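Lab notebook page, bench 4
Experiment: in silico fold of construct C2
Operator: M.H.
Input chain length: 111 residues
Purpose: comparison with the prior construct
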Amino acid sequence: MIRLLNKLPGFIRTPPGVEWILFKRIPIIFLVVTIIPCLPMLDIYLNNTSITPMQQKIIYQCLGALFSLWFLVGAIAIGCFVVMLMKGPAYVADPYELPKEEKRLEGDLAL
């Protein structure tokens, strides 16, 4: 049976760097980034019986900041994963044999 993943012989693996440190801290960063915009919203909801339009605007701005920060943390996590993947071992692809050349067909394609 053909092995699917053939490692490149003689490849030197790159040592881990900042991406591992950052990737391990992603859950804490996600939690902090979630708590910061939620505190003003929680304060508005708990301390008021009715919400004014100005308070509603603040809530919408906090939600916008929350979702933007979530997407930022997600992009950082994906970036860390890509760097870790690229620093991993190199693999050799299976050879692909090209079809036989037919010189008579190459002349037809020239314009």
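Observations: Residues 6-94 form one domain. Residues 23 and 72 are 13 Å apart (CA to CA).
Next step: discuss at group meeting.
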